[in-house]
């Protein structure tokens, strides 16, 4: 380091190692001391302030009420105010589950899009891969060897012949490189899919799609690295080992907070409330990057549990979710907070992060932090090269300028209320009109007569009252039944709900479509039109969730295991294209398969091309490709065996084998083992000079 006088000080390696060790110990001591004292933790105070800003903004904007209303509607319950008014009137509390049915139908349709036979994404190779350097350099050597062989045979050689041969080999090498890139992309795609399956992405994605039509926004988190227990059998004994694993989780919208005022969730600071058990804290002991002293402090201080970071709606939320009220916490749950956002270098240095990592105290650093009560358990600069948090958010119907959109509950709120009112009145009216209203003049009956009981063939005993003989002692009045009109209103509301939500009843297998839907082709057309409305929802999922999640996974793998991927692949999500053209594309593939099943096309494609068509169609249909269609190598071996059998048969009949001299349009030596020839697809002819 340079002194104030401008003289450079040179230290020995031993002294440098000693200084680095002392700096590390000082940082550890600082983290330990700060982690045990909340009043001195400016980092903890900063995160606490940010969370309160997020919470208060969400409450003031009515988002908490919308989240609670979504749960009530899905569960078919009235809020306390409306329920009190109904009970005061003494009417029916029946609830029309229109929105809940639409939400379940939308989830089913989305699952049909993303969890069919095909993956909802694919990995495409670069359209212009670079030819391997060793192959490109070997082409001139191969041409030179071929030219020398032709010269020794006395055949003429011209510069044009040499140029044509070089171009031919370069094109063959390019084609082989393209095919190899496509093959490597398919291998990398299977590896990426293996990460997703092991990390529970598809389970979290299904839960995410349950939230999407129900809440104003839905959240999925990942990939995050967690230590998981894995049982390994060694010599007949079960051994539990911990290993790091990439994990995806669905995050409840109730527990996810983001900075107010942002239009894109990627630019927001976020907080996630997490409910931990003591086991979750125990699993953090000994893990790299986690402050063990802070973890042990939390285990010691919160041995009976901790309910922190409370929201005013938590009690009512727990009732709707049928969980324990957090104000009691008899289960001993421990609250924790995960923060993703910008923190100044000065605050991070005060917490104890080394100067080598936090080089400028005035610069904001995007960090991830985990807090439990008074303790900051871990802080790290975000490992993502995109400097983005691992939360991905979208809505059923997006609203420009805000991450919060509209759910089916919001879109059908008025329809749901009118349907509830008509259904309640229908039940009330059926009860009122199910029997007559009875008017009884009690002063006309004998003292021993019971006038509150009515049954067939009852005998009424009356007492004579002078001057009232013209009035009947008992009168009956039958209330009118309005059931047909009220039922018509309810049915009309369901039809309007179909139009607003664009999820008709026949799309979920209920109700009669009528009209064009009475025939199979007509119903197929109606289903196709209904699925078009989901294109925008699928586009939201593709753009905001699938694409960004897969890119984050791609970045993480490139940072940790670069040999798994080439680095030039592109991720293609297929949700929208699946909605639009999955069935049509398969029909075209089958039609192409039938049209090309003729001798002329077979001469053009060859056996290799036909096998590729069969593999593509079988793969799209979800059939076991490897067990049905042979590989290109197997096809080439079969062709070779057939050719050898034909040559042997020709020699046996005396025809022999007519050989030709190598020429500009003839194939090169059959025993050529040059690296260029080996890059060519089996069955293709590269020619020779």
What radius of gyration results from the CA coordinates? 38 Å
Distance between the first and last residues' Cα: 66 Å
Binned strand content: 5-15%
Q: How many individual helices?
A: 21
Q: Strand order, biggest sheet?
A: 4-5-6-7-8
Low-confidence stretches: 1-11, 30-40, 512-527, 656-686
Give the strand tally: 12
What is the percent of helical residues?
Answer: 40-55%
Class from secondary-structure proportions: alpha+beta
Largest sheet: number of strands, sense, barrel closure = 5 strands, antiparallel
User: What's the overall average pLDDT, rounded?
Assistant: 80
In one word, what is the shape?
A: extended
Task: Give your account of this protein's structure.
The structure is a single chain. Helix 6 (133-152) packs antiparallel against helix 7 and helix 17 runs antiparallel to helix 18 (599-620). Residues 1-11, 30-40, 512-527 and 656-686 have low confidence and may be disordered. The strands form four sheets. Strands 4-5-6-7-8 form a five-stranded antiparallel beta sheet. A three-stranded antiparallel beta sheet has the order 3-2-9. The protein has 21 helices and twelve strands. A hairpin with a 2-residue loop joins strand 2 and strand 3 (237-251). It is 49% helix and 13% strand. It has helices at residues 13-35, 42-60, 63-75, 80-89, 98-114, 133-152, 159-198, 201-211, 278-282, 292-301, 314-320, 345-351, 408-411, 413-432, 483-501, 520-560, 575-595, 599-620, 625-628, 632-652, 675-678; strands spanning 121-124, 218-234, 237-251, 256-258, 270-276, 334-344, 364-372, 375-381, 391-394, 437-440, 474-477, 570-573. The chain is α+β, with helices and mostly antiparallel strands.
